[in-house]
């Protein structure tokens, strides 16, 4: 009956609604496909008798093959039996396994983003009061990340903070550079080298095309690096000479800052270079007809620096430099020697290499060696061999000494030899040897030694050891060497290259007869100067804790030297004894 046909069979599941739903979807899809592609005359429309035979029974699963439109056919138009490709084209979409939720700001990040964020936090918090804690925290970061990545992150954070087009506050710049100096002392020159090269390149670019106050910030960073002895005064003087070539109003502003901040320091390190700068400014100023107020102000500042007159330097304030210097000494156990790099060295670092970094390649050494081979003629080399200059460094030093016009020319040529570290001792050794071997004493060697001792403290120490070696073995010196040694030592003491404290290894209570004659002649030469100079020479011993030396010199002067002096020399002797 009609009612029975509406009821489902008892042994079957009541899934007919879902099957009908699938069939309706199939019919709709076929209809829509026919609509898009057009009706085919041979294909009957859905709902006919032929369609009823094609409808699969309810107990069979609908495969979905009839919906595949891209079916390969043979030449006759029949479908190819390619079950593997058909089955592979229908893939089951798998739901991905649940993962840890990441906020949007943490997705697709730079691998070093977390490192850079940490470093920026430390750089932003750095100050003179917490520099030790910042260094400790940064040291922990090195344990978790590669050393090179941490170095780059620190330099990048400092550069982003300071290299801007507006004037950077001096205190902020000083504190950032304090971190760089401390890291350089702990790691080495390879840490600060990329920053110096970047500053040199930006400085050169700013000289041609200015971008706000970026040049002022670059020079300020270099000045603070010099104040903390990371770089030498050579780099500062080279920047000054570069600015003096253009000498615009903007350059005057930068020059004023240099001389007000580190002018007295560069005067102390290299007074001759400062005199050359003053001469260049005077020559340039003579050509200017209408001098601006800023130029007049600059000349007054430069004159005050040259005369070491702090009171006449306008707006002189060294509090920032003094404070970071104190913090630097407290944070660093042993400060390294400053880098003797020039602006040209930094600009040529990518092509010639970095000689100031240990283990780095450098092509400049090979070029200098080629110059050395053709610099000296055969006569000088033969003379060096005759005087037992048995190493290449000693031969070169000897030939420079013999071929120089004066002591300044000799100093410049010695610097071009690029003698490093322990080889620097050979310069003093060869100079003293030449001075003692002369038949007639030559003051030229005294001036050479004085120039090198003023240049670096290492030469002073080497000269002190050289004097001690000969004082311990005076008997081995012949008459000519003894006379020349007396003249050399007395000249060095008189011009204050070395102090009387160099005689502290001498026990004046136990010296022999030959030694008495040597020291009598030495002190006679020392006392044969002006009264003011005698006070300065002997007065240098007063604050030193060398009581044995002071008492020994007093006894020797009173008992051995005084009876042989004339009235004028006795007057100078009394002045000397009052200094103790």
Describe the structure.
There is one protein chain. The protein has 580 residues and is mainly alpha-helical. Helix content is 64%, strand content 0%. The chain has 29 helices and no strands. Helix 8 runs parallel beside helix 15 and helix 27 packs parallel to helix 29. 24% of the residues are buried. The N terminus is likely disordered.
The total beta strand count reads 0
What is the H/E order? HHHHHHHHHHHHHHHHHHHHHHHHHHHHH
Main sheet attributes: strand count, strand direction, barrel closure: none
Please give the radius of gyration in angstroms: 43 Å
Number of helices: 29
Structural class: mainly alpha
- The helix content is 55-70%
Average the pLDDT over all residues and give the rounded result. Answer: 79
- The 3D shape can be described as elongated
What distance lies between the first and last C-alpha atoms, to the nearest angstrom? 143 Å
Strand content: under 5%
| Unreliable stretches covering 5 or more consecutive residues | 1-72, 82-93, 367-374
Task: Break the fold down into its secondary structure elements and pairings.
Elements: H1 2-5, H2 16-37, H3 49-54, H4 83-89, H5 113-125, H6 131-144, H7 147-162, H8 170-187, H9 189-208, H10 214-227, H11 233-246, H12 249-269, H13 271-287, H14 293-306, H15 319-331, H16 343-347, H17 349-352, H18 364-375, H19 378-386, H20 392-403, H21 407-416, H22 425-437, H23 444-455, H24 457-471, H25 479-494, H26 513-527, H27 531-539, H28 547-561, H29 567-578
Structural key phrases:
single chain; 29 helices; 64% helix; 0% strand
